[in-house]
Amino acid sequence: MDVTFRIRRFNPEVPGKNKPYWQEFTVKNVEETDRVLELLHRVKWEQDGTLTLRRACAHGVCGSDAMRINGVNKLACKVLVRDVGTKIQIEPILGLPVLKDLVVDMEPFFDHYRSVMPFFVNDTPVPADGRERRQTQEDREKFDDTTKCILCAACTTSCPSFWANGHYVGPAAIVQAHRFIFDTRDEGWKERLEILGEPNGVWRCRTIFNCTPACPREIQVTKAIGEVKLAIQQRKREGIATPVGPIAVGNG
Amino acid sequence: MTSLVLTLTETLRYRGALGQWSWVLHRITGLGVLLFLVLHVIGVSWAVFFPELWEKEILIYQHPLFTIGEFALTACVIYHALNGLRIGILDYNPKWWKHQQQAAIYVLIGTVVILIPTFILMFQHVLKHYQSPEAPFIVSLAFIAEAQFPFLVGIVVAAVAAVLVSSVVGLFTGGGRASADKNARQSHHGSQLERFWWRFMRTSGILIVPLVFGHLILAHIVQGVFEINLINATIPGVPVNEALGMLANGINNSGTAVEYVAERWNFFAGPVAIWRLYDAALLALVTVHGFNGLRYVLTDYTQGSPLLRRAMGYLCAMGAVALLVVGTLALLGTIDQTMVDMARAAQDAILAGG
Ligand code: HEM
Ligand code: HEM
Ligand code: SF4
Ligand code: FES
C-alpha cells in the first residue's frame, strides 16, 4: 500500500522556503504495521534529505519526536500506519518557535520545567541505617503516574491556554511538579506550590482536557493539574492525590 | 493580539477531544451573556433615571431580531451554567476526571433537554403576540441602531481609557519589563488574588444558577418579554392586591415597562423588598463573575505586552465597578407616577410613529 504525506515545512535560511509551506510525498510499499517515524525516515533517506526532524530512541522513551499527526499531538515512533490511515498530515507541535521543518525550540519549554524545581528536596540526614528513605506502597502509588513523564511536550503544546500565552507554565511542568509535591519524602513542596500559584501557574488551566489524550505515556495530566490546584487551594498535600485507576482516555 | 489569531485558527485546526469544544462554547456563551448584561443593567437603570429610554428599550427587545437573540441568550445561559457546574465539580474532585468526557456529553444532553420545553413555552408567548388582533408594532432598524450606538461608543471609550491609564502607570513603574530579566533569581509567592478568584468563579457560579434561572423563568416562561408593557397584565412574582396603590397592586395599569419595574421593586414580603434584594444579589454575583471571566479571557491574549495586559485588568475592573454603581443606584431609586406617565407618553409617541 502507498501512503501520502502532507508535511508542514519551513527553512529560515533558504529564500522561498522561509515561510511555512506544505509539501506532499508518496511512500510506496508500506505495511500497516509500519511506524510513522520509519516512513518519515524513508522520505528523508529516499526522497528529500533536507527534511528535518528530531528523534533518538525510536521506541517512545526519549520524548524527542512529538509532532502533530493528523491534527493531534503524538509521538511519531509510537504511531502505526494502521492507527492513522494512508493520508497522513504532519506538523510541528504548536506554541514553541519553529526552527526548521518539524524541529522546534524546546528551550522555553525546558525553562518552565526548570522553574518548578523538578528535583528531590530533603536536607534532613539520611536514616540511621544509611540506606533509603522509606515510604509506604500507598504513598508511592499517589504519584506513580507522574513519574512516567518523558518531557516530550505533547501535552503542553496541545493546550489552547499555552498557545495563547507562552508564559503559562504548562501541563508538563505541572506534571513534573506533581511528581515531587506528592512524594511524602520531599520537603520542597511548599515552595513549589508558591511557584505554581502565580498568575501564570496552574490558574491558566481552563480544564480543557486536550493534554490528557495527547500524552503518549497515558499520564492523567489534567487530573494531576487538578490535584496541584487543590493542594494550593487547601494549603496542604495530604488526602489530595489519588492513584490512577484503569485509564479512561487513552492515546487513541 | 497575534496570540489571539493563532489560538483561534489553531483551535479550529487542532483535533482536540470534546473538552476543547466545551471550552470554546463556555467562553463564547460567557462573553455573550456578559455583553447582554451590560446593556441590560444600564437599560433597567433607565426605568429610574430616564423612563422614556427604558420604555424604548423594551420596544426594541420586542423586535424579531431581539426575539431570536433572546432564544440564543437563554441557550447560552443554560449551557454555560451546566458546563460551569461540570468544571466546578470536576475541579474539586480530580479523582472523577476519567468521567470528564462523559460529563461533557451529559452537559450537551442536559442543555438540549432543558431547552426543548423552555423554547416551546417561550415560543408560545411569541405566537400569542404575533396572533393578537392588533398588528404587532415593530420598531425600525434605524431606531435600534440609534439607541444601541451609545453602548458601542461607551465600550470603545472605556477600552481607550484603560490603555491610557495603563501607559501612565507604565511610565511610573518602568513598564513592568524589569521582571522579565531571566537571570534574576526571583523569590516566588503564589498569587492570593488568583487563588481567591478561582474559588470565587466556582462558588459564585453555584449561587448564580438558581438566581438567573429564576429570573429567566419570570421573564420568559411565566410571562414573555411582550407582556412587560402590556396594559392590565399581571406582574410575575407580585400578587394582585387592589388595596395597594397603582404602582404596587400587582397590575400593570399603565401598560408601561416602567410600571412593571416599579411594581416588582415595590413588592414587600413583610418588611423586605424581596425583588430588590433578589436583583441586588443577582447583580453583584453576575457582574463580578462576568467581568472576572472577561479578565481571564483578555489577559490570556495580551501576555506579550505588559501595557495591554495591565490595560485589560483595568478595563474589567472599571466595567465591573461602573455596572455595580449604576445597578445599585437604580435599585435604591424610587419610581413615581409622573415617571410612569412620562413613559406612557413616550410609548404612545413611538407607537404613533413619532
Ligand atoms: C431577555 C431576557 C431578560 C429579560 C426580559 C429581563 C428582564 C428584567 C427586568 C424587567 C428587570 C427589572 C427588575 C425586575 O423585574 O426584577 C431585570 C433586572 C435585572 N436583570 Fe434581567 N432580564 C433578562 C435576562 C437577564 C439575564 C440573562 C441576566 C443575568 C446575566 C439578568 C440580570 C439582571 C439584573 C442583574 C437585574 C437588576 C438590574 C439592576 O440592578 O438595576 N437579566 N431584568
Ligand atoms: C449560571 C451559572 C454560572 C456558572 C455555574 C458559571 C461557572 C463558570 C465557571 C466554572 C467558569 C470557569 C472559570 C475558570 O475557568 O476558572 C466560568 C467562566 C466564565 N463565566 Fe461563568 N458561570 C455562570 C454564569 C455566568 C454568567 C451569567 C456570565 C456573564 C455575565 C458568566 C461569564 C463568564 C465568563 C466571561 C467566563 C470566562 C470564560 C473563560 O475563561 O473561558 N458566567 N463560569
Ligand atoms: S506529561 Fe506526557 S505529554 Fe506531557 S511531557 Fe510528559 S510524557 Fe509528554
Ligand atoms: S524517538 Fe524517542 S520517543 Fe520517539
Shape of chain A: elongated
Identify low-pLDDT runs of chain B. Answer: 180-185
Structural class call of chain B reads mainly alpha
Please report the first level of CATH classification, the CATH class of the largest domain in chain A.
Mainly Alpha
**CATH 4th-level superfamily of the largest domain in chain A:** Alpha-helical ferredoxin
- CATH architecture tag of the largest domain in chain A: Orthogonal Bundle
Number of strands of chain B: 0
Write down the domain tally of chain B. 1
Total strands of chain A: the figure is 7
Topology of helices and strands:
The complex is a heterodimer of chains A (252) and B (354).
Chain A: E1 3-9, E2 21-27, H1 36-47, E3 66-69, E4 72-75, H2 81-84, E5 87-91, E6 98-100, E7 103-104, H3 107-115, H4 137-141, H5 160-164, H6 171-181, H7 189-196, H8 211-214, H9 221-234
Parallel strand pairs in A: 1-5
Antiparallel strand pairs in A: 1-2, 3-4, 3-5, 6-7
Chain B: H1 2-13, H2 18-49, H3 51-61, H4 64-92, H5 100-131, H6 141-173, H7 192-222, H8 257-266, H9 274-300, H10 306-332, H11 337-351
Describe this structure in words.
- Chain A has 2 domains: 3-104, Roll (Ubiquitin-like (UB roll)), CATH 3.10.20; 107-238, Alpha-helical ferredoxin (Fumarate Reductase Iron-sulfur Protein, Chain B, domain 2), CATH 1.10.1060.
- Chain A is built from 9 helices and 7 strands; from the N terminus they run E-E-H-E-E-H-E-E-E-H-H-H-H-H-H-H.
- In chain A, helix 3 runs parallel beside helix 6.
- In chain A, the strands form 2 sheets. In chain A, strands 2-1-5-3-4 form a 5-stranded mixed sheet, covered by helices on one side. In chain A, strands 6-7 form a two-stranded antiparallel ribbon.
- With 252 residues, chain A is an alpha+beta fold.
- Chain A has helices spanning 36-47, 81-84, 107-115, 137-141, 160-164, 171-181, 189-196, 211-214, 221-234; strands at 3-9, 21-27, 66-69, 72-75, 87-91, 98-100, 103-104.
- Chain B has 354 residues and is an all-alpha fold.
- Helices cover 73% and strands 0% of the residues of chain B.
- Chain B contains 11 helices and no strands.
- Chain B has helices spanning 2-13, 18-49, 51-61, 64-92, 100-131, 141-173, 192-222, 257-266, 274-300, 306-332, 337-351.
- The longest helix of chain B is centred in the middle third of the chain and has 33 residues, at 141-173.
- Chain B starts with a helix and ends with a helix.
- The chains are: A alpha+beta (252), B mainly alpha (354).
- At the A-B interface, helix 5, helix 7 and helix 9 of A face helix 1, helix 2, helix 4 and helix 7 of B.
- Bound molecules: protoporphyrin IX containing FE (2 copies), iron/sulfur cluster and FE2/S2 (inorganic) cluster (FES).
- FE2/S2 (inorganic) cluster binds at residues 55-58, 60-65, 75, 77 of chain A.
